[in-house]
């Protein structure tokens, strides 16, 4: 292969890595937040909602929205002291600001008419994802007739504190129960929505999470680049899927929780290790023509000892990625089976995108390897080198931020 072609391949690969990595924070998921809403029937035909909002973010956003600096001062002091009673007291002493902030961005309607909110109890403090959450009960009086509609625009990107806030809602009202996922692109849902509409919401959320989670995409690209045959990428992807599904479900059932400050650096490290694995094997395999057709040391399922070891490493790292997927929805404690079903659909959305990437990328690399083995070796080597470097950088950044 000429040096000009080689430089072109390396340049193209570097450009792809730069495109994926540029502007990405150390946590490829970004600084996001999850709001939880539970909708039930209230007294006198009213609708009751219980909102759970990340405490420190709530304090900052409400204080800024209402220009209430005393709320910021007392709320921040309570947060830093890790005093749950003081945190609840801070919100109680500034109820007007907190109430105004929430009701400007969260609403319930019925029959096309907005319902009127009122407080339904005192603030309390709970915990989600290992951090304090403010619990705020509200009741809504509705004059309109029809299926209730819930709309949420809490903690929007425009505030500049977080991005990509999601609202996870569960409801049990008027004989209907279910769950829904809201974000900036889809800010509302109707209690009377069909099952397939709920299915699509969580499927879309899972697909978008993988597409916007650059670290997961780079991990998948490293798997594809390091797989010599279709059998290998199928087994690696299956191993990864099984592993992250296990921890995803365990987290959803409340049986396991690992802090994000541990999960995120390990995810970044997994990217570097899987990419580095191919770089380490590349000189031993020679060009990709040898790698594609050398079966002398194959064992069960057509894998040699190194192949099985790689599969085990992928499975272990898949367990950690499952915790990262669970963290995207803030899964930290057991919920209803209805919501669990929705989370499984979220997982299906992830798998659909993962399969789509494999179908698009692997045949192209396989074709390059067969037609121009040396070019294939340089292309996969350059890709894995860039991915490994990005993973190491993210790992260091996340450790320092943790």
Compact summary:
By secondary structure, the chain is α+β, with helices and mostly antiparallel strands. 59% of the residues lie in helices and 16% in strands. Strand 9 (166-173) and strand 10 (176-182) form a beta hairpin.
Detailed description of the structure:
With 402 residues, this protein is α+β, with helices and mostly antiparallel strands. 59% of the residues lie in helices and 16% in strands. The protein contains 13 helices and 11 strands. The longest helix is centred in the C-terminal third of the chain and has 35 residues, at 337-371. 43% of the residues are buried.
Poorly predicted ranges: 1-30, 287-296
The H/E string reads: HEEHHHHEEEEEEEEEHHHHHHHH
Fraction of residues in helices?
Answer: 55-70%
- Measured by DSSP, the beta-strand proportion falls in 15-25%
How many β strands by DSSP?
11
* Overall pLDDT: 80
Shape: elongated
Helix-strand blueprint:
Blueprint: H1 3-21, E1 34-41, E2 47-54, H2 55-66, H3 69-80, H4 84-92, H5 95-105, E3 106-110, E4 113-114, E5 116-119, E6 124-128, E7 131-141, E8 148-152, E9 166-173, E10 176-182, E11 188-190, H6 195-212, H7 214-225, H8 230-252, H9 260-285, H10 288-293, H11 305-328, H12 337-371, H13 373-401
Parallel strand pairs: 1-9
Antiparallel strand pairs: 1-2, 2-7, 3-4, 3-8, 5-7, 6-7, 8-11, 9-10
Key structural traits:
single chain, 59% helix, 4-stranded antiparallel β-sheet, alpha+beta
């Amino acid at each position: 292969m000429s040096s000009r072609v080689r430089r072109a391949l390396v340049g193209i690969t570097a450009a792809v890595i730069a495109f994926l990595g540029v502007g990405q924070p150390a946590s490829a998921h970004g600084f996001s937040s999850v709001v939880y809403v539970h909708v039930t029937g209230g007294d006198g035909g009213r609708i009751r909602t219980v909102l759970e909002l990340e405490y420190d973010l709530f304090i900052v956003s409400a204080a800024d929205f209402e220009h209430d600096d005393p709320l910021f001062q007392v709320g921040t002091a309570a947060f830093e002291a890790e005093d749950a009673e003081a945190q609840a007291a801070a919100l109680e002493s500034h109820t007007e600001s907190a109430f105004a902030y929430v009701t400007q961005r969260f609403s319930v309607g019925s029959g096309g008419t907005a319902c009127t909110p009122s407080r339904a109890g005192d603030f309390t403090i709970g915990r989600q994802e290992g951090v304090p959450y403010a619990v705020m009960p509200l009741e809504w009086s509705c004059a309109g007739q029809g299926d209730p509609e819930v709309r949420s625009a809490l903690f929007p990107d425009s505030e500049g504190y977080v991005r990509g806030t999601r609202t996870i809602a569960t409801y049990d009202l008027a004989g209907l129960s279910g769950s829904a996922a809201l974000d900036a692109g889809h800010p509302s849902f109707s209690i009377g929505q069909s099952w397939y509409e709920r299915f699509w919401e969580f499927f879309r959320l899972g697909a978008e999470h993988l597409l916007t989670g650059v670290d997961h995409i780079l991990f998948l690209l490293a798997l594809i680049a390091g797989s010599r045959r279709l059998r290998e990428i199928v087994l690696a992807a299956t191993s990864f899927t099984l592993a992250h599904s296990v921890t995803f479900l365990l987290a959803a059932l409340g049986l396991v929780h690992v802090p994000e400050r541990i999960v995120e650096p390990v995810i970044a490290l997994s990217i570097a290790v899987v990419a580095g694995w191919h770089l380490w094997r590349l000189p031993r395999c020679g060009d990709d023509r040898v790698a594609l057709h050398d079966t002398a040391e194959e064992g069960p399922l057509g894998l040699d000892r190194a192949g099985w070891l790689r599969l085990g490493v992928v499975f272990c790292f898949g367990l950690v990625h499952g915790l990262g997927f669970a963290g995207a929805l803030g899964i930290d404690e057991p919920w209803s089976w209805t919501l669990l079903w929705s989370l499984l659909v979220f997982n299906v959305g992830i798998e659909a995108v993962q399969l789509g990437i494999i179908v698009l990328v692997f045949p192209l690399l396989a074709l390059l390897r067969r037609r121009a083995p040396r070019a294939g070796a340089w292309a996969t080597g350059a890709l894995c080198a860039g991915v490994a470097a990005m993973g190491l950088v993210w790992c260091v950044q996340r450790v320092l931020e943790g």
